[in-house]
Fold this sequence. Notes:
The protein is mainly alpha-helical. Helices cover 71% and strands 5% of the residues.
Amino acid sequence: MSRAAERQEAVRQDKDQSWLQEQLRIGMGGGRFPADSWLRQDALAELYGVSRFVVRGALERLSEAGAIEHVPHRGYRVRRWSHQERLELTEARLVVELAMAPLMMARRTEALMAPVRQACAQFEHAAGEGDGEAMFLNNHAFHRALAVLAGNRPLADQVNWLREQGMRGAGPGWPKAGGVERSIREHYAMVEALDTGDILGLQGTVQRHLTAWQERVTD
Length: 219
């Protein structure tokens, strides 16, 4: 194989590993790979139609990012957020997202609200279909669209980064204690608060939304 061909192959494999890494993150967030489940290389290669080399590279990247853990002589396992980790992440998100609310309220436009409404409806549709991975993706799209309303790129990037740390591993989620229905209601409540200019209502809903998981866990 020529050097040019080797470089092309390396680029292709890197792209494949990045693609598979994202698919596995979506799978973890959507419930396909719950916390503490084992990620078997042969099964993943067959499921996603890639080589074991690509699977191994994606798993190594996820392990380095802290999304999964490597257990010697056993393989890779999806890690579970500790209660303290989730508390600290929630606290950080509340500090940033509640502070963004006045900017979101002041700078929102109907054009910027359109993606918020679309993601809100798509999340509800995915929930009705029982499609966990689509719910996961549309939930992120909804919150990303909300962050755009603030009209401040560094703030939006920060809140998106904080929220997407939740893709590092898995933990208790929507299925417990009516979590799906509650999330749908709270998404629509945020939209309504923005439409009516109710900043306190928006902040209150955001706070309830971010802390709802605490009512669904006991450890």
